[in-house]
Amino acid sequence: MAVRRLRVSPRRKRLVSRLLQVAIGAILVVGLLARNLSVVVNAVLALVLTFVPAMLERDYRLQLDAGVTLWLALALFLHMLGMLGFYDEFWWFDHVTHTLSAALVAAGGYVVTRAVDEWTDDLYLPSRFMFVFVLLFTLGLGVFWEVLEFAARIGAELLGFEPVLIQYGLEDSLLDLLFDTLGAVIVATFGTDLFSDIVETLTDRLDEHRRGGRASDGRDSTRDAVASLERLLRTDSVNARLSWVLVAFLAVAVASGIAAGELLPWLLVAAVLVLALVPALAYRDLGAMLPWPLLLLASLPVFGTVFARPWLSSGLVTYVAVATIALVVALELHLFTPVLMTPRFAVLFVVVTTMGVAGVWAVSRWLADLTLGTELLLDPALTDEEIEAALMWEFVYSATAGAVAGLVFEWGFRR
Known about the structure:
Elements: H1 2-5, H2 10-34, H3 37-50, H4 52-60, H5 66-89, H6 93-119, H7 127-159, H8 170-194, H9 196-214, H10 216-231, H11 237-259, H12 263-283, H13 292-306, H14 315-336, H15 343-372, H16 384-414
């Protein structure tokens, strides 16, 4: 209740936002005088981003709340203070900036997704699904940010320059993802109340775009695309036979793995097996099976483990399987729950889920190692630098697999 009594006028919020822009400009000058490339690049990008709300208002008549504009400017200003040494001086500063930034990213993802959901009848995303999607979206972008920092570090080492984006070690990267999750949870929990006005404004702009006659054909093509999504569930006999062969292989592999005492990896495979059986159980028809190529892609790491082919269970192939499983989840949510997805949204879901799963898996292993004494991530035979490099390459694989799978699935939907 105390927060509600604290009322700051939009005019004062805009004034503070302008002061923060000036402060970021001053940091840019400091970076130029000190010839600090990382500070200069980050300050230029931060200053440009602070003008995005004004550009949206001018070009699209999308007026953001003054509080959101202030939130953006504050997050960017605090990041610039971190670049000046606050990240090194205060251990908690990076966690504050990541929580603020992650909440801002989550808010953007929530607003756009909810507005499109309300604008079109071809998409229906219940509140529970939105909660999970916002988490995956934010964690996925968090993983992508770690990939960018890793790429910047490698590029700087190769070219002999100071890195523009700085990584502070394994623990810092994992804590970043943990606080990204915190920011996402805040927005996913309170987003309906905080951003309803912005969602309504964006929905109105989309309606105006539709009335302008430029979106009618798109809606027809969207309905056709939704039909193509449903046609992924095939019922021809050849597909059913091949799919059942793969299901039998997975069942035998799961039973053998659990009998051998390897519970965790084979329980994950058992989840894939359940997804494969959902259509047949839902329709009570043994011929209603997922397309066998999807099941094959999702099963590749299992083939690698069973037949001792390490390349089939490598990081990249594993995340191709994760992307395929994400598509299967999207398909079954669309067919067997109130959730409605267009093919384009399903592709977006696949991309962010693949990267988000990588983030969840990394943080889960780390926390398990710290609290339960396992060695899922923190291998005592490796140095922190080696573990961090392996984890960053895992993130690269997840981002690559998600992007490539998204393009391939989009091409498949268009066909």
